[in-house]
Structure formats: C-alpha cells, structure tokens
Amino acid sequence: MSFLHAIMFAILQGASELFPVSSLGHAVVIPAVLHWGIDQASPSFLPFLVMLHLGTAIGMLLFFYSEWLGMLRGVLGIGYTTEVQTQRALLLRLVIATIPAVIVGFIVKKPVAHLFASPLIAALFLIANAGLLYFGEQLRGRALRRSAGLTNMDAFIIGLFQCLAFLPGLSRSGAAIVGGLRRGVGHEEAAKFSFLMGTPIIFAASVLEIPKLIHAHEVHSLFGTATLAAVAAGTVAYASTAFLMRYFRDHDSWALLPFAWYCALLGGASFLLLLFGL
Can you tell me the distance from the alpha carbon of 43 to that of 274, in angstroms, rounded to the nearest whole number? Predict the structure, then answer.
C-alpha cells in the first residue's frame, strides 16, 4: 500500500464511519473498483486498519468530550442530584443499547466473516443499506412523537437495529438512526445517541487488538504511515461528526434520503463494474 493510498483509505474510513453509508462497505468496494491494489488479506492490513479505527474513535471521543466527562461525573456522583441522575440514566441507556451487539456479534461473527472479503456482496449490501435508509425515513412519520428524551426501550431497539451492521455494506450509524426514527426520535437525537453508542465499541475493539499486534513485525514496518493515517482518520471523523450534527438538526424531515440515493447509485454502479471486470 502506497502512502497516498493509505491517506485516502484513512479519509474514507474517517468519513464513512460516521456517515450512514457503511465504512466497511466502502473499505471493501472502493479499493476494488478503483484498482488500488490493496491486499486486505495481507498481514500488514489488520494492524493498519486497527490504527485507523483507533484514530476514528479518538476523534469521536474528542468531539463528545463534554458528554463523556458528564457521564464520568455522574458515575462518581459529582454535581447536582438531578444532573447526576440524568448522566447515569444516559450511561445506562448506552449500556442497554450495546448488549444486543455483543450477543449477536458473538453468534454471527464467524458465519458472516467470509462475506467481508467479497466486493460484489458488499456492493449488494450497499444497495440494501439504501433501502434501509429510504424506508426508515418514509416510515418515520408514523412513529413521530412529541415526548422528549430516550427511554430504556428506545435504547434497546436502537441497539437491535445496530446489529444489522454485522452485514458488510449496512451502516452501523444508519441502522441505529433508523432504529431511533422508528421509535419516534428526531434525527439529531438519534444520530447523537448513535455516535455516543459507537464510540466505546470502536475504541474497545481497537484497543483489544493492539496487544496482539504490538510485537508483530508488520506494526513496526508501517508504524509511521499508519500513525499519520490514524491522525487523518481521526481529524476527518471529528469534522464529519461536527458536520452531521448540524446537518441532522437542520434537515430533520428528510435527512437520510440523500445518503439512501448515494448508496443505491454507488452500490449499483460498483456491482456492475465488478461483475463485468471493468
């Protein structure tokens, strides 16, 4: 992998991890369509990918720094009673939303692992992601409610929707937002909860891999490139989060539709290009 491809891959990862378009789908499809010549089965690719995810998670942690600090203060009982209770309730909902992903991930990880290496299948799932976003937006009005704040049941349902992302090409953030919309939650609130929910998952998954890779030769051979790529991914993730939070606030009635059309066009075009070897 050249330095230019590494930086381009980092930008792709940092943006697509937050946008509801599937980072994994893009990571599999885009290099294949553009003929980057990246061998994702190479021993050096996993350490590189771990570094990108770590950078992305740090970018998200920095953006939501005040929220995580507030939850920490709530756990420690620092502040007014009502604020402590509010922060503890938010943390509880994040835990509840994470439980389905832990259970489902343990069950389906091996059976679906082979799908992650197929650009053709990932392209088809990008089209499926378009359908998920489109119908989630269309059906949202039937569930729209006026009550403020997420409930524990909302969190659990959002966590269930998030599990759709175990299929390559279905977006974790997109599925989680659609889950929130189905519960009558607005785009901005659903997106914020999705980003908060995803941050510790991405961070923990990256950190758990580091001890396994720290002594590997591949880490040392590409450490400089991977570090710069991780910084790029984190910077793009921070900027993407800032943009999306404003975007979802300002376009609450149709926010997912442009991403649905984008995924449909990208998935369809990529499938045809890959199918005919163009």
Answer: 25
User: Whole domain around residue 260: which residue ranges?
Assistant: 3-275
pTM of the model: 0.90
Report whether 50 contacts 213 (CB < 8 A): yes
Helix (H, G, I), strand (E, B) or coil at 248: helix
Helix%, strand%, coil% for the chain, nearest 5: 80, 0, 20
Mean pLDDT across the stretch 151-164? 93
Predicted local confidence at residue 202, as pLDDT = 81
How large is the angle between the packed helices 223-250 and 45-63, nearest 10 degrees? 40
What is d(CA 140, CA 151) in angstroms, rounded to the nearest whole number?
Answer: 17
- Number of structural domains (the chain) is 1
State both tokens at 23: 């980072």
**C-alpha span between 261 and 129 (Å, rounded):** 10
**Residues in CB range of 171: below 8 A, 6 or more apart:** 19, 20, 21, 22, 23, 25, 129, 132, 133, 165
CA gap 149, 226 in Å, rounded: 40
Give the residue among 198, 215, 217 at the shortest CA–CA distance from 206: 198
Residues with Cβ within 8 Å of residue 2, at least 6 apart in sequence: none
- Residue 150, sorted as left (phi over 0), alpha (psi -120 to 50) or beta, turns out to be beta
- Residues with Cβ within 8 Å of 26's Cβ and at least 6 positions away in sequence, in order, are 12, 13, 16
Higher pLDDT, 5 or 44: 5
Report how far residue 64's alpha carbon sits from residue 82's, in angstroms, rounded to the nearest whole number: 21
pLDDT per residue as tens digits for the range 36-49: 877 766 666 777 88
| Cα–Cα distance for residue pair 97/183, rounded to 1 Å | 14
Cβ within 8 Å of residue 102, ≥6 positions away:
none
Please say whether the beta carbons of 25 and 169 come within 8 A. yes
